[in-house]
Specification:
D-amino Acid Aminotransferase, Chain A, domain 1, D-amino Acid Aminotransferase, Chain A, domain 2, 8-stranded antiparallel beta sheet, 16 strands, binds pyridoxal-5'-phosphate
Length: 332
């Protein structure tokens, strides 16, 4: 069996430290250890954020990073909202391309890829700073070769609709930060144990939002419906890419509020599809919604045609099999 997603790492990573006034020169260091003061701000007050993006090998041998600018912009935004020191955007881009270039020969061919995990966190040794930002930080770029996400089969997912609790504090939603995942863990573990759900779809107050690590899309015939951007949830780069491709294909894209009631009503119709979007899977089909002890099949309960069509369109751009008309790839 192949190694689980994200458990294999390339032996080196790019790293830089902010000492309160400037970023240290970038170094390539072994990726299996990191020395931190036990009083480091991140360990106590979760001043940490990260990104997830991928590099793809094309048939001509080139290696191409997908939507690096978008991911860097989101990392800057996460860092600012957490009160972390400002990143040097150009240095971040160089560190990403440098790390990918270092392992270019080992980037798996499609459907595999090199998963890139830039991470930024507060390192100031100051445990009294519970309500004060860290003036010091560390930024590294860790990379992990990954295989076919659907190697175990492309099964449609079961989602528990949770309309009572929420994934994280609403003002933290658009920050890709560790604490948010910790906050979603209990509801997800409970849903797995109690109703064998794969994921929880958080719908605070009946407003369909997202799962623990992916955005939610409802596809009804020619229309694709998903929550409009606000600060309560994570602005997925895959979400944006899929919506762009859907518009290219002449689909109607509706970014608006979707209630649990409307979702359940629409999902029952034949031809309706639902999917989760994120970098790891691109689009994963949703077959069943579970709400208040009842199960609702989405469309036929299987894998939707449009879901597959959109996933293929995006994969084809990533894999160099279709023209990159939106300029999403950075060739290194
Ligand atoms: C990373 C993430 C997503 C998906 O974002 P992509 O940029 O598409 O990978 C969605 N929701 C949450 C909570 C996430 O952490």
């Amino acid at each position: 069996m192949a190694a689980a997603f994200g458990t294999v790492f390339m032996p080196e990573m790019a790293i830089s430290w902010f000492d309160g006034s400037s970023w240290s020169p970038v170094e390539m260091v072994p990726s299996d250890s990191l020395t931190l003061h036990p009083g480091a701000h991140v360990l106590h007050y979760s001043s940490t954020c990260f990104e997830g993006l991928k590099a793809f090998k094309h048939e001509d041998g080139s290696v191409n990073i997908f939507r690096m600018d978008r991911n860097i912009a989101r990392l800057n935004q996460s860092s600012q909202l957490l009160g972390l020191p400002d990143l040097d955007t150009e240095q971040v881009a160089r560190m990403i391309t440098q790390t990918v270039a270092r392992f270019a020969d080992e980037v798996p061919a499609p459907p595999g890829s090199l998963y890139i995990r830039p991470t930024h966190f507060g390192t100031e040794p100051a445990i009294g700073k519970a309500a004060v930002p860290s003036t010091m930080s560390c930024f590294f770029v860790l990379v992990s070769p990954v295989g076919d996400y659907f190697a175990g089969g492309d099964k449609s997912l079961r989602l528990l609709l949770e309309d009572q609790g929420m994934r994280c504090a609403p003002h933290m939603g658009m920050i890709k930060s560790g604490g948010n995942y910790a906050s979603a863990l209990q509801p997800i573990m409970k849903a797995r144990n109690e109703v064998q759900a794969d994921q929880v779809l958080f719908c605070p107050g009946g407003d369909v939002q997202e799962t623990g690590a992916a955005n939610f899309l409802l596809i009804d015939g020619n229309e694709i419906i998903t929550k409009a951007l606000d600060e309560s949830f994570l602005h997925g780069v895959t979400r944006d890419s899929i919506l762009t491709l859907a518009k290219d294909m002449g689909m109607q894209v509706s970014e608006r509020q979707l209630t649990v009631d409307e979702l359940l009503e629409r999902a029952a119709k034949p031809g309706c599809e639902a999917a989760l979007s994120g970098t790891a899977a691109v689009l994963a089909p949703v077959g069943t919604l579970i709400y208040k002890g009842q199960e609702y099949a989405v469309g036929t309960g299987g894998i939707g045609e449009t879901t597959l069509k959109l996933r293929t369109a995006l994969n084809d751009i990533q894999w160099g099999k279709r023209a990159d008309t939106h300029g999403w790839l950075t060739r290194i």
